[in-house]
UniProtKB/TrEMBL annotation:
Chain ranges of the Cyclic nucleotide-binding domain: 11-43
Keyword Ribonucleoprotein: no
Protein name per its UniProtKB record: Cyclic nucleotide-binding protein
InterPro entries reported in the protein's UniProt record: cNMP-bd_dom (IPR000595), cNMP-bd_dom_sf (IPR018490), RmlC-like_jellyroll (IPR014710)
Keywords: Activator
Amino acid sequence: MREKLLKYMTEFTKLTEEEQQEITEAILIEEYKKGTYLIRQGDAPTTKCYFVLQGCVRQYTINESGKEVTANFYTEEQAILIFAFQDSSQTSKYSLTCLEDTVMVVGDFETEQEMYSQYSELEIMTRKMTEIYLGETQNEFAAFISSTPEERYKSIISKRPDLITRVPQHQLASYLGVTPESLSRIKKRMNKDI
């Protein structure tokens, strides 16, 4: 698992091999069982952030009518950034739960600050990765808003095909903004076109 971290450090930093090794040994890697909640909607803010090495984490909200609405799925080599910790009066607006047994790098604000002061290149790497992530998220959100449910499903098939088999269909339908029945109809139409 640590090889993935070394890949990012090599790609985004000028850290020596020795520094990279020190960092990977200092970083906390945790395993979570399927069904584990990282945070629940309504919980106090957390200072933790995560980087998925293996597995799948679902982000969802329960709306006012009691319906679960899936906002995202995080899989391998994706960061789960939580910025709400800076306002301690806020509670979490969503839940994060592991859909599979999951292995993640776990960071917290204090430890990150200590690591950044010791390894300035690490902060540069984190900033670059965050910029890439935010840019991709903005593009995905803009495309999502302007597309039809069928176009959203086609996008999932081309960009994240593993989700089709890794997540329950009712959660995938929620993520796409459709009912499970509508998702079934979309799949049927697409199979006819093949």
